[in-house]
């Protein structure tokens, strides 16, 4: 099955030109990696682990590192790579399935059998049980999730090991374990009145398999941006409070819609004792928010919304819940990538949308729905640079490897971690959306 979202004609080169735009626009990219104007759009200058879109993004220790691609892929032109990918794909037939995330570059998405968000894609892998290889054109945690949900004989392949997620990297297993130790020392471990646990850990899908396993082992659960409210309800049926990681914004925005006051949502800074809080403040907490964020979504601002409304009267503003709370509050609606896509599909012709999410998805929607006016809230294009590490050259390299009988860049979650991580995912699947 090929997804219905077509590839727009605008090239990546056009967007590079936009990135190198006027000075005023450049000033707004202060949080962006300057290398975005060239580096990740082609090949990594030095193979390694890819940073996110912010200069301050973490690079976790012990993370997998991508080696240098053979010269024949680095030196091949776009047309040659395209042809090699098509040829390898045809040779593999149903033995391989290619998954492309909504935020992925067009040159890669055009080869995907399925396009969607991370969870849709992980589940899509299950639809092709005959595929020996699942080539995941997304980021590392997504490939791990696909490995958790796919069959034992299926190999999940991440074309470039440098494609991480800066948000997922903001909560590492050691820091979360240390936080948990402090919380259990403060709250105790024993269930309290009515069998309620003192704290339920909830991790966003954008996290490592190790953190999903941590949740599985400690009575916790995974959530997506589509089901975060239902998952928090599940957690509050079982516990007095929630530790939510890694995205503070999704946690705050969701808890706020459930009526939880902001002063009952302290932030947990993993570099400070008690996360930078007093014991008294933590006693009053309902949701402890890990100090993580998405470097792409935190760029959207209330001022951008005001400008969109001034320039496009009647515009419908929809933002992703990974955006900061004031932005979500100022928008008309907030929702997952799936929500945004469905809202646009259901709108009457002639509608105008200002969208607060990653630029590749917005551009693709604009191409798919020419009857609407659809634009990105952020006038300065700042894509997810880690996602962009999946250059077509890497895709050609892994596919040709499969044709030759070699599985390159396989992502495998160790068995002990996988069992506990699946427990947390299964709890989520049992929760109604
Ligand atoms: S858009 Fe943000 S959350 Fe999504 S993969 Fe990129 S850095 Fe991670």
Automatic annotation (TrEMBL):
**Which keywords belong to this entry?**
4Fe-4S, Cytoplasm, Iron, Iron-sulfur, Metal-binding, Pyridine nucleotide biosynthesis, Transferase
Whether Ligase counts among this entry's keywords is no
Q: Its catalytic activity?
A: iminosuccinate + dihydroxyacetone phosphate = quinolinate + phosphate + 2 H2O + H(+)
Residue ranges spanning the membrane: these are none
Q: Which positions bind [4Fe-4S] cluster?
A: 165, 294, 384
What are the EC numbers?
2.5.1.72
SUPFAM superfamilies, per this entry?
Answer: NadA-like
Q: Which top EC class is named for this enzyme in its record? A: transferase
Pathway the protein contributes to: Cofactor biosynthesis; NAD(+) biosynthesis; quinolinate from iminoaspartate: step 1/1
Q: Which organism is it from?
A: Arthrobacter gandavensis
* Family to which the UniProt record says this protein belongs: Belongs to the quinolinate synthase family. Type 3 subfamily.
Q: Which Pfam families match?
A: NadA
User: Its gene?
Assistant: nadA
Functional summary from the UniProt entry: Catalyzes the condensation of iminoaspartate with dihydroxyacetone phosphate to form quinolinate.
Where in the cell does this protein reside?
Answer: Cytoplasm
The cofactor note from the UniProt entry for this protein is: Binds 1 [4Fe-4S] cluster per subunit.
Q: Please state what the protein is called.
A: Quinolinate synthase
Q: Which cofactor does it need?
A: [4Fe-4S] cluster
**Gene3D superfamilies membership:** NadA-like
Residue positions binding iminosuccinate: 101, 118, 204-206, 225, 320-322, 337
Primary residence:
cytoplasm
């Amino acid at each position: 099955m090929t997804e219905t979202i077509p590839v727009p004609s605008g090239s990546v080169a056009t967007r590079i030109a936009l990135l190198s735009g006027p000075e005023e626009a450049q000033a707004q990219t202060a949080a962006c990696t300057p290398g975005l104007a060239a580096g990740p759009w082609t090949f990594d200058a030095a193979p390694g682990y890819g940073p996110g879109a912010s200069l301050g993004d973490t690079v976790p220790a012990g993370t997998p590192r991508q080696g240098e691609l053979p010269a024949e892929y680095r030196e091949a032109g776009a047309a040659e790579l395209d042809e090699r990918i098509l040829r390898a794909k045809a040779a593999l037939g149903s033995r391989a399935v290619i998954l492309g995330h909504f935020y992925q570059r067009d040159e890669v998405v055009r080869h995907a059998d399925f396009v969607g968000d991370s969870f849709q894609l992980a589940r899509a892998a299950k639809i092709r049980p005959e595929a020996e290889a699942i080539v995941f054109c997304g980021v590392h945690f997504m490939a791990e999730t696909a490995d958790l949900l796919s069959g034992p004989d299926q190999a999940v392949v991440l074309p470039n090991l440098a494609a991480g997620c800066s948000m997922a990297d903001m909560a590492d297993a050691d820091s979360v374990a240390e936080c948990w130790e402090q919380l259990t020392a403060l709250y105790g471990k024993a269930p309290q009145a009515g069998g309620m646990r003192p704290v339920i850990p909830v991790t966003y899908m954008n996290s490592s398999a190790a953190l999903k396993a941590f949740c599985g082992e400690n009575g916790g659960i995974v959530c997506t941006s589509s089901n975060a409210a239902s998952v928090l309800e599940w957690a509050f049926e079982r516990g007095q409070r929630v530790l939510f990681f890694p995205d503070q914004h999704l946690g705050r925005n969701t808890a706020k819609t459930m009526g939880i006051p902001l002063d009952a949502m302290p932030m947990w800074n993993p570099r400070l004792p008690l996360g930078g809080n007093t014991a008294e403040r933590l006693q009053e907490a309902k949701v402890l928010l890990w100090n993580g964020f998405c470097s792409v979504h935190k760029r959207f601002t209330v001022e951008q919304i005001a400008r969109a409304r001034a320039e496009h009267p009647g515009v419908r503003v929809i933002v992703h819940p990974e955006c900061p709370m004031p932005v979500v509050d100022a928008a008309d609606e907030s929702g997952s990538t799936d929500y945004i896509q469905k809202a646009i599909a259901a709108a009457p012709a002639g509608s105008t949308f200002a969208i607060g999410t990653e630029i590749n998805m917005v551009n693709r929607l604009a191409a798919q729905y020419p009857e609407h006016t659809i634009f990105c809230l952020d006038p300065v294009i700042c894509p997810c640079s880690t996602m962009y590490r999946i250059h077509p050259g890497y895709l050609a390299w892994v596919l040709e490897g499969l044709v030759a009988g070699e599985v390159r860049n396989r992502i495998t979650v160790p068995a002990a971690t996988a069992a506990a991580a699946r427990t947390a995912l299964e709890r989520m699947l049992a929760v109604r959306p």
